[in-house]
């Protein structure tokens, strides 16, 4: 008799000696965060993320040709800054993502570890 092997005997499954949790899962566990995984490209569970990813792709790689990874990286950085600082979103009741974060900071700074103002580029950065 021949046994069939599909590679499952080599998988690092939870509860086995060779299994080590991913660093992200370790940090989540340390902070009491439940990390849930969903199926990729599944609009019923990932709808918002899939839509944002599509918007970013349409504005970058589907609209422009980049000769180098550096060009793509620079354009992506500029696009995300414009998206987060200039584009009001209906889900945030007409506020930009940065405006929404700064408003939350002013209302309840205890919810934040750091002052978010320092994470956004300004006129002197």
From TrEMBL:
Domain Integrase catalytic positions: 1-105
InterPro entries for the chain: Integrase_cat-core, RNaseH-like_sf, RNaseH_sf
BP GO terms, sorted: DNA integration
GO MF annotation terms: nucleic acid binding
PANTHER family assigned: INTEGRASE PROTEIN, TRANSPOSASE RV3428C-RELATED
Protein name: Integrase core domain-containing protein
Species classification: Bacteria, Pseudomonadati, Pseudomonadota, Gammaproteobacteria, Oceanospirillales
């Amino acid at each position: 008799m021949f046994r069939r092997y599909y590679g499952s005997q080599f998988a690092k499954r939870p509860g086995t000696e060779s299994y080590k949790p991913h660093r992200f899962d370790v940090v989540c566990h340390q902070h009491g965060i439940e990390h849930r995984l969903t199926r990729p490209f599944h609009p019923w569970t990932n709808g918002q993320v899939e839509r944002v990813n599509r918007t970013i792709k349409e504005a970058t790689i589907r609209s422009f040709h980049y000769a180098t990874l550096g060009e793509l990286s620079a354009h992506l950085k500029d696009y995300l800054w414009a998206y987060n600082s200039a584009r009001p979103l209906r889900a945030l009741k007409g506020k930009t993502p940065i405006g929404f974060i700064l408003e939350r900071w002013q209302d309840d700074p205890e919810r934040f570890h750091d002052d978010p103002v320092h994470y956004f580029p300004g006129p002197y950065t």
